[in-house]
Amino acid sequence: MRKANTVLSKLLMAAITLPLPFLLLACGSDDDSNSGGCENVACTLIYISLSVTIVDGTDAPVALDSYTVIDTQNNRNLPPDFSADSFENMQATGRYVFFSDFWRDDYRNESTVLRFTGFLNGTEVIMTELEVNADCCHVSLVSGDVDLIVD
Q1: N- to C-terminal Cα separation, the chain
Q2: Are 139 and 107 in contact (CB under 8 A)?
Q3: How many other C-beta atoms lie within 10 A of the C-beta of residue 126?
Q4: What's the count of helices (H) and strands (E) in the chain, helices before strands?
Q5: What is the mean pLDDT of residues 114-127?
Q6: In this structure, are residues 51 and 130 in contact, taking their beta carbons and an 8 Å threshold?
Q7: How many angstroms separate the CA atoms of 20 and 14, rounded?
């Protein structure tokens, strides 16, 4: 009988102590805080890019020579985060990236207005303002027209 109690005692002790380290690891020091941090947020692995589509009066894609994206709140120029090949694809399709997850950390939990300006032969041919924001995971469009027509 004593041997059975010893085995039962050991099993009970193991049942109590084995899960303890896992419970301690599952809890972070800031679990009860409302800090708004992103440490415990699960994000998708997709990469979000926001773009404008620019066509002419016949609905053909417009191949801009260049474009700029300026944060109107601080006059910061947001340089592109794409390759020359990607820009050629944008010219062919008329879809130009103006904001992406590349900028997420700089704009996390805030909104801003971006001014997109497109150029042909050094001349401004299109300009629009777009309000964007970012959360812990991705950027998003708040407002603004992303379907543009060049006269």
Answers
A1: 95
A2: yes
A3: 19
A4: 3, 8
A5: 96
A6: no
A7: 10
Query: Quick check: 80 and 87 in contact, CB under 8 A?
Result: yes
Q: How far apart are CA 142 and CA 133, in angstroms?
A: 7
Sign of the dihedral defined by the CA atoms of residues 31, 34, 37, 41, in that order: positive
Can you give the three-state secondary structure of 57-70, one letter per residue?
CCCCECCCCEEEEE
Structure tokens at 119: 């150029």
Reduced to 3 states (helix: H, G, I; strand: E, B; else coil), residue 141 is: strand
Q: How many residues does the chain have?
A: 151
The pLDDT value recorded for residue 27 is 40
Both tokens of 94, joined, read 């008329």
CB–CB of 150/60 below 8 Å?
Answer: no
Q: Rounded to an integer, what distance in angstroms lies between the CA atom of residue 54 and that of residue 63?
A: 8
Amino acid identity, residue 63?
A: A
0.85 surpassed by pTM: no
For residues 30-53, one letter each, b for 16 or more C-beta atoms within 10 angstroms of the residue's C-beta and e for the rest, the string is eeeeeeeeeeeeeeeeeebbbbbe
